[in-house]
Design goal:
- The longest helix is centred in the middle third of the chain and has 16 residues, at 125-140.
- It is globular, with a radius of gyration of 22 Å.
- The mean pLDDT is 93.
- The protein is an alpha/beta fold.
- The protein has twelve helices and 17 strands.
- It folds into two domains: 2-293, Spore Coat Polysaccharide Biosynthesis Protein SpsA, Chain A (Alpha-Beta Complex), CATH 3.90.550.10; 296-374, no CATH class.
C-alpha cells in the first residue's frame, strides 16, 4: 500500500494580522514552542510514516513559492497551487487527481491518504504517529473514511464536534486505540451546548484530519457530491495529458485544469462528504492537540514571564500584566508598554495592532476595514 499525505495550507490567517500577511500566513510563522514554522512542524511529524517524496502541500498561488522556500527538503513539484480558492472539497478532489496522475501505475485502491493540517499543534510526536498510523491501517483494509477526534479539555465554542456512535474493534488494541462509528458532526455550539458535550463524554472535537483509500474517497465524493467527485477522473486525465506534453510532473498552471476547477462551488469537505456519508469512523487521539486559531492561542504555546506576559522581540515592559507583546520588526525599533493589562500589542514594519485580549476575534473586522480603506497594501 502506497501511503501519501496531503497537507492543506491555503489559509490566509487574517486573525493573526499584522504578524500574518497574504504572502506570510500563520502556517509559515513560528507560532508553536519551537523555532520552526508550523508547516515545517507538520511535515516533520510524518518522519518514519510517510516519505518526503510522497508528501504534498496544497496551497494558493501566492503562497506556493514562499512555502516551497521554507520546505526545501520537499520536491518542488509536490507544492500544488490551487487554480482558484474553492474551499476544502475541491482542494481534496484536486489532491486525489494529482495523486492518481503521479502514481498512475498503481490502482486507486492501493493508495492511502492522510489529509492533515498545516496550522495545528500536536504533541508528543510519537503519540501523534501512533494515532494516525492506526487511522491509516483501519482505512486501508475497510471501505471507510476515518477522522481523528480530540477529547475536549474545555467547553470550547470555536470548534466543531463529533458525536460518537458504536465502538469498533481496533487493529491495534495493544496501543489503546479507541475507534467508534460517527453518529453526527455538530457545528460550533453555544456555550451551554458545549458544556453538555464536555460533561456527557460522548462528543469529541473535530480535528479536521481525514484518512482514506483513494478509491473510497473518489467513489464517496462522486456519490454524495457528483458536481466535484464526478470530475476527479477528468482532472486526472488533464494532468496526465499535460505531463505527456511537458515530459515532467507539473500540477500547476494548466489552463484546462484551471478552467474546470474555477467552476467548482466553494464547499467544505465536511458539508460535501463527511456529514452525508454513512461510512465514517473516528479514532480518538492519543496526543494533545491545539488549533492555533487566534492570537490568544499563543498563551497556550509560548512561555510567559512572572507577570503573565508573552514577550517576543525588543520590548520595554513596565507595570504590564497578562499581555501579549510582539515586536516583529527587523529594524532598531523598540516596543514599550506602561501600565497595561490584558492587551495584545503587535508592532510590525508597517502596522501596529493594539487590541484588548477579549476582542481577538475582531481582528478580522479590522482587516476588512483596512481592506476597504487602503486596499491590499497593508495586508
Amino acid at each position: 500500500m502506497k501511503r501519501i499525505a496531503i497537507i492543506m495550507a491555503g489559509g490566509s490567517g487574517e486573525r493573526f494580522w499584522p504578524l500574518s500577511r497574504k504572502n506570510r500566513p500563520k502556517q509559515i510563522l513560528s507560532l508553536g514552542s519551537s523555532e520552526k514554522t508550523m508547516i515545517e512542524e507538520a511535515v516533520g511529524r510524518l518522519e518514519g510514516i510517510i516519505s518526503l517524496e510522497d508528501i504534498f502541500i496544497i496551497t494558493s498561488k501566492i503562497l506556493a513559492e514562499p512555502i516551497g522556500d521554507v520546505l526545501e527538503m520537499l520536491p518542488r513539484q509536490n507544492i500544488i497551487a490551487e487554480p482558484q480558492k474553492r474551499n476544502t472539497a475541491p482542494c481534496l478532489a484536486l489532491g486525489s487527481a494529482c495523486a492518481m496522475a503521479k502514481y498512475k501505475d498503481l490502482p486507486a485502491g492501493e493508495i492511502s491518504v492522510a489529509v492533515l493540517t498545516a496550522d495545528h499543534i500536536m504533541t508528543p510526536a510519537h503519540s501523534f504517529k501512533e494515532t494516525i498510523s492506526s487511522a491509516l491501517e483501519y482505512a486501508e483494509c475497510r471501505d471507510v473514511i476515518a477522522t481523528i477526534g480530540i477529547t475536549p479539555s474545555r467547553a470550547e465554542t470555536g470548534y466543531g464536534y463529533i458525536e460518537l456512535g458504536d465502538s469498533k474493534k481496533s487493529n491495534n488494541i495493544e496501543k489503546n486505540i479507541k475507534i467508534n462509528s460517527v453518529n453526527n458532526f455538530k457545528e460550533k455550539p453555544d456555550e451551554d451546548t458545549a458544556k453538555k458535550y464536555l460533561e456527557d463524554g460522548n462528543h469529541l472535537w473535530n480535528s479536521g484530519m481525514f484518512f482514506w483509500r483513494l478509491d473510497v474517497f473518489n467513489s464517496q465524493l462522486e456519490k454524495h457530491f457528483p458536481g466535484i467527485g464526478g470530475k476527479i477522473s477528468e482532472m486526472r486525465a488533464i494532468i496526465e495529458m499535460a505531463n505527456e506534453t511537458s515530459g515532467d510532473i507539473n500540477f500547476n498552471d494548466i489552463d484546462e485544469l484551471n478552467s474546470l476547477f474555477s467552476k467548482f462551488p466553494s464547499i467544505s469537505i465536511d458539508f460535501a462528504l463527511m456529514e452525508k456519508s454513512d461510512d465514517v469512523i473516528v479514532v480518538r487521539a492519543l496526543f494533545d492537540w491545539d488549533d492555533i486559531g487566534d492570537l490568544n492561542s499563543l498563551r497556550r504555546t509560548k512561555s510567559s514571564d512572572s507577570d503573565g506576559n508573552i514577550i517576543i522581540g525588543k520590548n520595554s515592559i513596565v507595570k504590564t500584566h497578562n499581555s501579549i507583546l510582539i515586536n516583529d520588526t527587523k529594524s532598531d525599533k523598540i516596543l514599550s508598554t506602561i501600565g497595561m493589562s490584558n492587551v495584545i500589542v503587535i508592532l510590525s514594519e508597517d502596522a501596529v495592532l493594539v487590541c484588548n485580549s477579549e476582542n481577538v476575534q475582531d481582528v478580522r473586522l479590522a482587516v476588512n476595514d483596512i481592506r476597504e480603506k487602503f486596499g491590499e497594501a497593508f495586508l
